[in-house]
Structures are given as structure tokens and as C-alpha cells.
Amino acid sequence: MALLEIKNLHASIDSKEILKGVNLTIQPGEVHAIMGPNGSGKSTLSAVIAGREDYEVTDGDILLNGKSILDLAPEMRAREGIFIGFQYPVAVPGVNNMQFLRTALNAVRKHHGETELNAADFLKLARSEMAGIGMNADLIKRSLNDGFSGGEKKKNEILQMSLLSPKVAILDETDSGLDIDALKSVAEGVNRFRSPEKGILLVTHYQRLLSYIVPDFVHVFADGQIQKSGGKELAEHLEKFGYDDFKKDGAENVA
Amino acid sequence: MIAEKPSTGSWLKAKRELAYLLSHNTYPTNKDEDFRYTDLSFLHDEKFIKLTSKASLQAFWNEQEIKSKSIDSCTISNLLETDSAEIIESNRDFVVSRNTLNFELGYHIRLNKNNNEDWQVLKLKHSSEQGETFFRHLIEAETGSKVIVVEEFQAENQALINSITEFKLSQGAQIFYIRRQEQKPESIHLGGVFATLAENADFGSVLLQSGGKLSRITGEFSIDGKQANCSLKGLATMDKTRHSDFTVSVRHMASNTTSSQTFHNLADDNSSVAFTGLVHVCEGISGIEADQMNRSLLASHDAIAYSRPQLDILSDDVKCSHGSTTGRPDDDAIFYMRSRGITEKIARELQKAAFIKAVIQIPHAGLQKEITDSILHDNFQKDAEILLEML
Ligand SMILES: Nc1ncnc2c1ncn2[C@@H]1O[C@H](COP(=O)(O)OP(=O)(O)OP(=O)(O)O)[C@@H](O)[C@H]1O
Ligand SMILES: [Mg+2]
Fold first, then answer.
1. A73-94 pLDDT, tens per residue?
2. Beta-carbon neighbours within 5 Å of ion ligand 2
3. What are chain A's domains?
4. SS3 state of residue B385
5. Distance from CA of residue B280 to its chain's centroid?
6. Residues 6+ apart with CB under 8 A from B65
7. Over chain B, what is the mean pLDDT?
8. I need a labelling partner for B370 at 20 to 30 A (CA). Which of A88, A222, B68, B385 fits?
9. Do B263 and B245 form a contact (C-beta atoms < 8 A)?
């Protein structure tokens, strides 16, 4: 059975249609990459999968392990194993990063009938994961993403992914804003997460990430749809020639 | 020690005559600039005001009830029985005048030099079962005193408490004042805190308004001596149709003095919250630093926040920041937390709890925990434990 199946997904915001029939199937163990022009709807796709209520799904379905998740609240989707690494992680002043993560992890564990982790065991686990992605250990003591640099926020997303251990991780431009060393360690973190049971969807603008995390499939996303799918060579083609072939209105084409 | 009704000193007679001339024992309308957000004229028709006041007052020194005239470095007496006392002029406002005219319960407290370096804790517990009750305290903090003064207010629904506390801080005195108003939802709370600070004195405070259908606190602080500091924090948590008003002013009268005002107002349902803050810096002084910040969080679309931060600066050598923000719960943050498996209810409550907790900063670990826990429990009941873990 497919891990994640997106079928003819249409979604609108303020009655403007952004997703115009997305079809995508991720099998266990697969890594997919989505590349596409600014404003084409990639982050919208992540938000709709996560369950953001501002978007209205007007047609189609999203299935996790064969079951529709459209009626689930965002927190239930998370507990069922959906994780989004956001393009713009939100700061939550006053909420402690570590306690937040532990509460989130325990909510997921409880949902699966597992025992909750105490503070000491959690800290041990978090420390080793932070070391794995080269994240400054002090960040876990601060308010959630508050005052974090762009790169620190992205690392915090990857930390959350490794701790929550979802079934499917959708990483929306996790590589943007990372320096070269950080990109490598984040990629290593993702590769450690990669396994025969898990699925990964990478949204990126750069071929560089894909040389560290080699995808099984690459999709070109434009105008609210997947326009073309292929292997990793498609990413190399895009890097050279851009998206001109895939744009309907050419709005992004300044030349 | 329970204060008993005494014979009135002649100093007070004079004060009361003046107070009567100024106020005629009435309540102000919102035409009075200071009461612009809180019209009190309805009190003339409020029936329970006419009930005979049933009130009590107790004092505790480091958790121990005070039964004699002095304990440790603290001496205490009935304010009405003191031969002479200098209390503030009643022309401040109607609430002060009315208090001066009518108060029967109150202490005159002298805080002498501490016996050790630790914060001592003086607690005053006020309660009223019914009617209009007036409390009045005068607290003189001598050099070397370092005391946390906690005032607690409990009132039944048919009660109005009007309570005023005045502080006089001598050179280098350190006072941290906590005012906790946790009255029943139909009751009323009025009054305020007044302080004068001599050289090197340090006055900190947290004013907490969580109960009552209407509460208004006035604060006036005069920084009279060099190197003195006055740090004020305030928190109102209102819901239903309740109303809270903070009206504070800080006057810098001497050089190299600092002050801050940080007030958080949280309004849910149809409630309203108001803040009026003034920083005044007089002419010819220098090296002043003053901050003023009012944040309002509107947790519902029908809640209202009023904010009036004001500066009155007559000197050049001043570093001053002031601001006011009114916001709603951050939907992006709520969604972000939910996307990690946190329920919507907890995510929403976390926003409010973080806003509340940010202004509860007490230099005493035990009180900090006790008060934070209790406020979060009042606001979030059984979720408080989860929230407290995450903040
Ligand atoms: N509330 C809204 N009303 C109208 N249009 C919106 C609204 N929110 C988003 N959009 C539009 O939806 C489109 C898709 O945005 P989205 O963020 O999904 O693009 P993206 O592919 O992730 O782009 P980028 O590569 O820049 O991150 C954009 O044109 C955006 O302006
Ligand atoms: Mg995007």
C-alpha cells in the first residue's frame, strides 16, 4: 500500500484556486523531490497536507496508509505520522523549546500507546539528535524559534523531525538559508531518517541539496500541478534550463 | 493583628475636611479625564454599596501572623491611632478622597533595617463580605530594609473594596510590592498604590488584577532621589463583561534615575481592559532612563483594549522608549504547534499563558512559583499543569 497518496487535489484560499489537481504517490522508503517556480503552490501543498484550515479542499483526497486524512485536525495528522518542516518556522515567544518538543513527542507516543518520556530521558535523546545535525545545544533551552537565525530555525525543524519520527516528512525548502556546512549536516540528518518504512518529500530550489540527499523521483511543480516527473537527472536539467518549458503564463519570466 | 475602630487623630480630621470639600464623597463620571475609561457614577445607584461593611484585615510577617506591635524589623500599628502621619493629599482623585474620608481599617507600618540579606515577606490579607470597605496603609521603609509586601484582596459578590497603600522609601530602601486582586466576579475593586523614593531606593512591583466585575488601580510614583529605580509590572486577565483599568504615572524628579512600566492586559469574551501610563521627567535633571510598554491581547473579537501611553519630558538627557501593542492570538503560531501534535486548546492557552507569565517576575522563588501557579490555575484549571511545564 502506498504510504502517502495525493489524488487530484484541488485547494483554494479566499476562493482563489492554488492547487489545481495534484497527483502524487509516495511508497514506503521513497524520497521525492519537488522543484518549481516561486508562487506555484508548493508551500500551499504542504500546508494543505498538514491541515491548515485557511485552505479549502474543493476536490480530491489525501490518503495516509490508504486512509483519508482530510477530516483529521492538524494535531491528529501529526500524531498519525505527518510532519512538515516549514519554509518559515514560526517563533513562539515564552514557550520553552525543550518542553514544547517533549510535550509534542509524548502526545505522539501516547497516541501510539507508547510510554511517555521523562525530562531526563528526553534531554538525552534530544542532545544526541542535536549533536547529529550540528545544532547548538543552548537552542533547546530558549523560547521556541524565538530570535533563532534562519539556519537555526531550519535545524530546529530537522530536530523535531528526528524526534517525532513521523511516517512521512515533507521538508519545505529546509535547505534555504543554510550555510554549506549546515546543509551537509542537515542532509546527513535526513539521510539517517531515511529508511525502508519512511517517506520523504523534499521541496527545494537547488540541485545542491539533491546531491546530498539523492531522490528516487523528481517532480516539476508549476501552476498548482505536477507538470512532469522523472529521476534525479530531471533536477540537473532544471538547474541548467530553468522552468520556462513548464510555465503557462510566463509570469516569472522576466527575459 | 486585627485593626479595631479607634478615635480619630486630629491630623486625620483636617485631611478629611479637605477631602470632603474636594469630592463631596461622590464617585466620578468618565467626564473626569482620569476616569475616561472607567465611569464610576453608577456606584451611586448600586444597592449593595449601602450595606454595612463586613471586612477583615490580617498581617503576616514571613508567614507568621502578626499579633503584637512589632516583630523582627517590622513595627505595626493601627493607622487611625497614630498621633501623626503624613498621607497623600486627597486632591489626587475621587477614589483617594473617598478613601481618606471613610477608611476604618489600615496599618501604619515601619520597616526597619533588615536583620539579614534576604527578602523579608510582609503579607496583608484583606477581605470583605459585603458593602463598601475602605482599607488604608502607610508603609515607611527605612534605610537597609528589603521587604516584599504582598497584598491580597478577597471579596464576596456584594462587596466593593477601596484600598490605598502608600509607601515612603528612605535612602537605599528596597521594596517589592505585589498586589493580588482575586475578588468574586460581581465585586468591585478600587484604589491604588502611591510611593515616594529617596536616593538609591528601589521599588519594584507586580499589580495583578484577575477578579471583580470592575477594577481600577491608580499608581503614582515619585522618584525624588538620585540613583533610585522604579520598576512596575502589571497584569489584568479579564473575561465575560468584566473591566479592568490601570492608571499609572512615574515622575522623575532627580538625576540618574531609572523606571520601567510593563503592563499586559488580556481580554476575553466581551471584557475590556484599559491602560493609561505617564512618564514625567522634570526640567534640569539628567541621566534618565525610562521604559514604558503596554501590550494587550484580545482573545475574542468582542473584547476591547484601550491604551494611552504618555510622555511628558522636559529634559534633554533622557533615554526613553515607549510603546503599545494590541494583538490577537497568533494563528500561525497556533497552527505551528498543532502541526507538531499539540491540541488546538492547549496551543491557544499557551499563547495566553506565555503572555501572562512574562510579567510575573518576583525576586523570591517561592512566591514566584506560588503566584504563577495560582494565576495559571485560575485561568486554565486542569490544563495549568501542562502549560506550566511548557513555559
Ligand atoms: N490568502 C491568499 N490569497 C490569495 N493568494 C494567496 C493567499 N495565500 C497564498 N496565496 C498565493 O498562492 C500562491 C502559492 O503560494 P505558495 O507559498 O504555495 O508558493 P510556493 O510555490 O511555495 O513559492 P516559493 O517557492 O516562493 O516558496 C502564491 O501566488 C500566493 O501569492
Ligand atoms: Mg514555498
1. 999 999 999 999 999 999 999 9
2. A 42-43, 87
3. 4-246 (3.40.50.300)
4. helix
5. 19
6. B1, B58, B59
7. 94
8. B68
9. no
Q: Is A112 in the pocket of ligand 1 (CB under 6 A)?
A: no
Nearest chain A residue (CA) to B343:
A75
Query: Nearest-CA residue of chain B relative to A82?
Result: B339
What is the phi/psi pair of residue A150, to 5°?
A: -55, -45
Has residue B377 got a pLDDT over 80? yes
Tell me if A43 CB under 6 Å of ligand 1: yes
For residue B22, give the amino acid letter.
Answer: L
pTM of the predicted model as reported, rounded to 2 decimal places = 0.91
ipTM of this complex > 0.90?
yes
Phi first, then psi: give them for residue B256, nearest 5 degrees: 55, 45
Question: Which residue is closest in CA terms to ligand 1's atom 8?
Answer: A13
Closest residue by Cα to residue A86 from A137, A156, A9: A156
What are the residue boundaries of the structural domains of chain B, listed by start?
A: 10-328, 330-391
**Alpha-helical segments (H) within B107-171:** none
C-alpha B263/C-alpha B261 separation (Å) is: 6
Three-class SS of residue A43?
helix
Chains A and B form CB pairs within 8 A to the count of 84
Name the average pLDDT for chain A: 94
B341 and A107 within 8 Å at the Cβ level: the answer is yes
Query: Cα separation of B71 and A86, whole Å?
Result: 60
- pLDDT, residue A249, reads 52
